[in-house]
Every structure is written in C-alpha cells, then in structure tokens.
Specification:
By secondary structure, this protein is of the alpha+beta class. It has a single domain, classed as Alpha-D-Glucose-1,6-Bisphosphate, Chain A, domain 4 (2-Layer Sandwich), CATH 3.30.530. It is built from three helices and nine strands; from the N terminus they run E-H-H-E-E-E-E-E-E-H-E-E.
Length: 173
C-alpha cells in the first residue's frame, strides 16, 4: 500500500488543480467543519468530534452509495504537516478501514491536490461493493470533491490596484 505522500498507486486516487495557494487550501481542509462544503449530496456529516477538546479532528459521516446502499464511517485526522499533507482514517464497523490523504503541492501560485484512499482491510460487504463498481463510484465522488474545493476557494478574488482593494470580483470559470 502507498503512503500518503506518494509511492505506489492508491486504491482510489484523483489529482486536480485548485486555484488557490497551498497555505489557503491547507487551512481550509485542516478545519473539519469545512469538509461538508466540499462533500457531495451522497455524503452527510452527522457529527464532529474532538479528541483533544479543541478543534474537531474526527467525524461520523453517512455515505449513500449506488443502489441505495448506506454506510456509516468514523473518520479521524491522524497527522497533518502544513501546508502539504493531511492524513486520516475512515472506519466502517470493525472490519473495514482505509487511510485517506490530501497531498498539496504548489503549482505556479495554485495548488496541485492529490486525494487518495488506501484500503487497509475490508469486510465482506465492503469488498463486494468495491469489486462491483465502488472504486469507480468513490473516484467520481473524490473528483467532485476536488471540483467543489476549487470552486469554494477560488470563486472570489480581490481586484488588484490602488483604490480598488475593497472590491472583489468573481474569477472567470
């Protein structure tokens, strides 16, 4: 299995460009309260939890998959190295566990984002779901999350120039 910062391919992986600097992307993703803003309609954040009493570092999420299959996952951030890497786990019951990573790299003022999941172990139902198209479905969900992350962070940019620093304009798509 691959590690969060490169190496062998992950079980599910997407890469995209977010039109915002890595520091801003990392700051946004570091706050789990923002994750609902990039999750699609198939993912619902049910609860946010804090293991240290501070900012949330875990969540319970409900995922509605193809053909109405529903799974509930416990997620936890286990490591973060700003502004380039966030690693977490997602567990479904006792039998299924995956590592999820966000890897950020500067790219000409923007950020190259790799969102990957590596399945450490899967119970019988989850193995079946993954084999029956679940990997493709997760890849589409990950791709949609990166698109929403880009829209969330790059929709409004300040207009440069003297006397116009208080004006914001929408960035063209």
């Amino acid at each position: 299995m691959a590690s969060g910062d490169g190496g062998a391919p992950a079980d599910v992986e997407v890469v995209g460009l977010v039109r915002s600097p890595p520091e801003k992307v990392f700051e946004f993703l570091s706050d789990l309260r923002n994750h609902w803003r990039v999750a699609d309609p198939f993912v619902h954040v049910l609860t946010l939890e804090s293991s240290q009493g501070g900012a949330p570092d875990g969540a319970t999420v409900a995922v509605r998959g193809p053909i109405g299959v529903r799974r509930t996952a416990q997620t936890r951030v286990v490591a973060a190295r700003g502004p380039r890497l966030i690693i977490g786990t997602a567990e479904i019951g006792e039998q299924t566990r995956a590592r999820v990573s966000w890897t950020l790299a500067p790219r000409f003022g923007d950020t190259r984002v790799r969102l990957a999941a590596e399945i450490d172990r899967a119970g019988p139902l989850d193995r079946l779901l993954l084999a029956a198209g679940g990997r493709r479905w997760l890849t589409r969900r990950f791709r949609a999350a990166l698109e929403r992350l880009d829209r969330e962070l790059s929709a409004v940019v300040p207009v440069d120039g003297p006397g116009h620093d208080h004006v914001a304009a929408e960035r063209p798509a």
